Write a sequence for this structure.
């Protein structure tokens, strides 16, 4: 049987790991969004390039 103190520590560790995974996912999504926006701008500039 697991002691109460160990249970509390394990649950705290699980919560910290969940928060860390969530934060990593948020950073990844923000990076993805920024990259896609920049690529969209570049594609727009290429498509709308007027030869003179």
């Amino acid at each position: 049987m697991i002691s109460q103190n160990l249970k509390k520590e394990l649950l705290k560790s699980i919560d910290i790991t969940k928060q860390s995974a969530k934060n990593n996912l948020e950073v990844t999504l923000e990076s993805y969004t920024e990259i896609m926006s920049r690529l969209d701008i570049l594609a727009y500039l290429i498509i709308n390039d007027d030869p003179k």
Notes: Residues 4-47 form the longest helix (44 residues).
